[in-house]
Specification:
The complex is a heterodimer. By secondary structure, chain A is mostly beta strands. Chain A has no helices and eleven strands. In chain A, strands 2, 4, 5, 6, 9, 10 and 11 form a seven-stranded mixed β-sheet that branches. Chain A is globular, with a radius of gyration of 13 Å. By secondary structure, chain B is mainly beta. In chain B, the strands form three sheets. In chain B, strands 2, 5, 6, 9, 10 and 11 form a six-stranded mixed β-sheet that branches. In chain B, strands 3-8-7 form a three-stranded antiparallel β-sheet, with no helix packed on it. A two-stranded antiparallel ribbon of chain B has the order 1-4. Classes of the chains: A mainly beta, B mainly beta.
């Protein structure tokens, strides 16, 4: 069974540009989560999808971040325009309906210069 | 507000020595506590959860509500235990909405 996959694994962009991160959850997992860890800080929750619906987006830092999960399969997280403080690792995770174990992807490293 | 504190950023022990990674939390209700581990070049993965009361890879963790702690222990550390360890808390209805500590890098020397 394939795990949670994220793309790209690494991205370097200039301040003001746009980046889109993609997450493919484990097949059949309705729950999808985004987290991020910025330099020197702990891993923080961003948002939670149940299928295509945003269940909880309380962790989204500001309106430069837009997450979508059209069709309830893969999800994208767009940062537009990117700022220096957005640099970090963005993790995606998924779980099944019972939701008692979540599985993480390897993360997407974002560097904004 | 819920918070998880791991006071040690780095912890070094020798192979065969006991190891304890500390975790304290603050939460007003009844939390679910977890330990996650990230080995070098691997993804973050669940090590154990307090409700299971199980031992994984020789590690155990007991939830102490009086001290609001969930320390991770292993009596005899192995070199392959070297990794980043995160303590995490889930306080809502969703297991996936986790509050993480800053993590502790454990290095086990031969």
């Amino acid at each position: 069974e394939a795990g949670v996959t994220q793309f790209p694994s690494h991205s370097v962009i200039e301040k003001g540009q746009t980046v889109t991160l993609r997450c493919d959850p484990i097949s059949g997992h309705d729950n999808l989560y985004w987290y991020r860890r910025v330099m020197g800080k702990e891993i923080k929750f961003l948002l939670h999808f149940v299928k295509e619906s945003k269940q909880d987006e309380s962790g989204m830092p500001n309106n430069r971040f837009l997450a979508e999960r059209t069709g309830g399969t893969y999800s994208t997280l767009k940062v537009q325009p990117a700022e220096l403080e957005d640099s970090g690792v963005y993790f995606c995770a998924s779980s099944n309906t019972q939701g008692n174990t979540i599985y993480f992807g390897e993360g997407s490293w974002l560097t904004v210069v | 507000a819920q918070r998880v504190t791991q006071p040690e950023k780095l912890l070094s022990v020798f192979k065969g020595a006991p190891v304890e990674l500390k975790c304290n939390y603050s939460y007003s209700g009844s939390p679910e506590l977890f330990w996650y581990v990230q080995y070098s070049r691997q993804r973050l993965q669940l090590l154990l959860r307090h409700i299971s009361r199980e031992s994984i890879k020789g590690f155990t963790a007991d939830l102490n509500k009086g001290e609001t702690s969930f320390h991770l222990k292993k009596p005899f550390a192995q070199e392959e235990d070297s990794a980043m360890y995160y303590c995490a808390l889930s306080g809502g209805t969703s297991y996936g909405k986790l509050t993480f500590g800053q993590g502790t890098i454990l290095t086990v020397h031969p």
